Amino acid sequence: MRQRERQLGLLYALPLSVFLGxxxxxxxxxxxxxxxxxxxxxxxxxxxxFSAYRTVLAQGYWKSVAWSLVLxxxxxxxxxxxxxPLAYAMAKVFxxxxxxxxxxxxxxxxxxxxxxxxGWVLTLMKGGLIEGYVRSWTGFGFxxxxxxxxxxxxxxxxxxxxxxxxPLAQGISxxxxxxxQAAFDLGATRWQILKEIELPLAMPGILVGSLLTFVxxxxxxxxxKLLGGRAVITIADEVxxxxxxxxxxxLGSALAMVLIAIIGTLAIWAISKxxxxxxxxxxx
Amino acid sequence: MSDAxxxxxxxxxxxxxxxxxxxxxxxxxxxxxxxxxxxxPSGSGKTTLIRLLVGMDDPTDGAIWLRDQRIDxxxxxxxxxxxxxxxxxxxxxxxxxxxxxxxxxxxxxxPAVRKERALELLDLLRLPRDYYSKRIQQCSGGEKxxxxxARALAFDPEILFFDEPLSALDYRLRKTLEKELKDLHRRxxxxxxxxxxxxxxxxxxxxxxxxxxxxxxEQIAPAExxxxxxxxxxxxxxxxxxxxxxxxxxxxxxxxxSPAAQAALAGQSGTLVIRPESLRLAPQSADLIxxxxxxxxxxxxxxxxxxxxxxxxxxTVEVLREDAVAGVGAPVSLGCDISAVHAIxxxxxxxx
Amino acid sequence: xxxxxxxxxxxxxYGILILAFLYLPLVSxxxxxxxxxxxxxxxxxxxxTDWYGEALASDTVQNLLWISLKVAxxxxxxxxxxxxxxxxxxxxxxxxxxxxxxxxILLPIFFPQTVLGLALLMWINALGIVPxxxxxxxxxxxxxxxxxxxxxxxxxxxxxxxxxxxxxxxxATQWQVLREVTIPLLMPGVVSAGLFAFLxxxxxxxxxxxxxxxxxxxxxxxxxxxxxxxxxxxxTVGMLTVAGSAALVALGLILAWALKRLRPTx
Lengths: 284, 352, 266
Known about the structure:
heterotrimer, B: alpha+beta, Rossmann fold, CATH 2.40.50.100, 2 domains, 6-stranded antiparallel sheet, 10 helices, 20 strands, 28% helix, elongated, disordered C terminus, C: mainly alpha, MetI-like fold, 78% helix, globular
């Protein structure tokens, strides 16, 4: 039995492992290799001189990195606050409405991010859905709240809401009702229950949700391009520019490696901490 | 019950869910320092009652008084009572010590004082002091029980409620903890109200037992009284195996009565209750004599139980092993004294 | 400790508000798609659906639709197969490298897609392959196959191993166990994984952007048009892709509901 399971496990894991090895790990190794090449070369056959990394430091690309991280951190914090009450209600209060919300939120994921962000442009622009109707009813118009930093954060919050909401709801559903009631019975106020019982026990969900949103938002660029009018240039945007307009593969690779290092460290740390079997309820 | 004013008074307490009434205006007084067990089968309303008492649900009607204070209008976290949950509800992310200190921490008691009190409670519950920094997951079932009790006692409640906390444990551990709980009650002098579906558990521990059925109290009395003089066949059956004989106008179908028994039962109608251990096989003399044939025989350790087919119906008899007489199929006579017989009058019977 | 009626009502209102927030931009796109004006401005004065006729008649749009469908279709079938096998290794069997395998599966999901797309482009170039819609399928699968594996795994985690053991105890061969027990029990997970795979591929932009070469999918074309200035076809084609997703989700929900009615035991 055990012997058979060992063989089957390896056998069934093989297709996906080989595929990801060839299409995920290998390209990353290639990017790492290119990042060490002299700038503006298109082969790996040159002597590594790490000049691209020097350019990253010298040319102020760190600003893009910092902006991406700050925007991602802001979006994560805001999402944590916005999603907590709703996730709590989905896990503990709503009955049928939880299903409605789940389907409703998941469905937005299937619409291309571009279309949804473009929809916000149409909604917020001068002569858009909001300003247009307000002006026609009241006679007063106002400038579009577009093409600035806050609207980029707004876009990130909008796009990554599901990635915070569902892990949070999952985390909160792991808080036993009895523990909350016992704390209440022992004299805890609503606030003390949140601090002493719910937050610590829902921590796995909070961590997964926060990391997922942070990591995704740190690698985002569509929000700043479409809504922000490039008021801020994100690191992902710089990577793309270096590859396409700049035709500087080593520079693009070096920038990508910076992003990969930051995100990879966080992701690997989180993944190594999480016990997936326990979180997903494996039997036996 | 003493004459002193009760610590807890429940009056006309009613709870209705949509179209189902779980509690029909129940009344109850509990004396200071009493150990009261509330016993009933599932669906009898005992869980609803305790949820109202601790404040996890609001009553539809009626009132709950703690001494002179009406508490049913106060939320659970402001009531001076506390409960030991069926699941124990220990906080898995906290150590044993942190669990016990929890109610003190909520009140802003200083860490040193909290720890001192937690260690005292560990002593009181006979847990080693080094359990203070142990994780909850490392405790055995019985140790978790003691931690839950310690946490409840740290709260220092006026009344301590228990919602079947022993039901998940194995038999031997349950027996040990029942005795410990009784002992703890005596040592702390607190008022304990204990919900259970096991009458056996209730009898071992409590001063008084309240039997619940379909949202009402069927009988509230000390254990011996409930055992000897159940007010209804329901209560009698709840106390364990029992024989029912039908009594009409002073006569019992299928039984011979002595003059003393005739005098005692004269003119009564209803149901006679006889415990299996009150019946004797082949009696020399008895006030009530029955006959039949042995249908089955079961060995119960030091005792033997017989199932007997008789004109009065199927009877269960339990005797000591040395008194065992016959095998299956043998005709037997059996009888008992009138003092061991309890008659439930017609009116009470009809309510059942 | 019960949530009061007022609090429940407030939370319900909050939930509806969040849903409205999520769908508001799509309302704008929808309204824009039926505006007659060539240069959009709210409030809309005249409505018509001419842009839909034009979009559907356009060769470009038809070609885009066809490429997007081909890519999503092949991605769906491949992820269902790979996801099914992967989930058994991920969740069901105890084997030596299970934990590392689980971690390998999660990494691509966390990875920034723009960077992944570029890395793949370099890799494809290095291998001497000309990028086309076929390479986009590979790119989509790097991200979608792990997600499909996770979705089937959720089902596989709640799978009682005793069922397979019982079947084997009754004399079933490995293949019979798979066919009679494992596949039927995991089927609902595989179907929802397929649904997710299609929809995620259908709407994906960052991976397609770098890996389709001269071909183009719907989201790519839309992005190019959005950047280069407003065209009335953008909201129209956008709504067409949304309608396609919505129809598929509706179909999936109806299918799930019908299966539940037909098999009350599961």
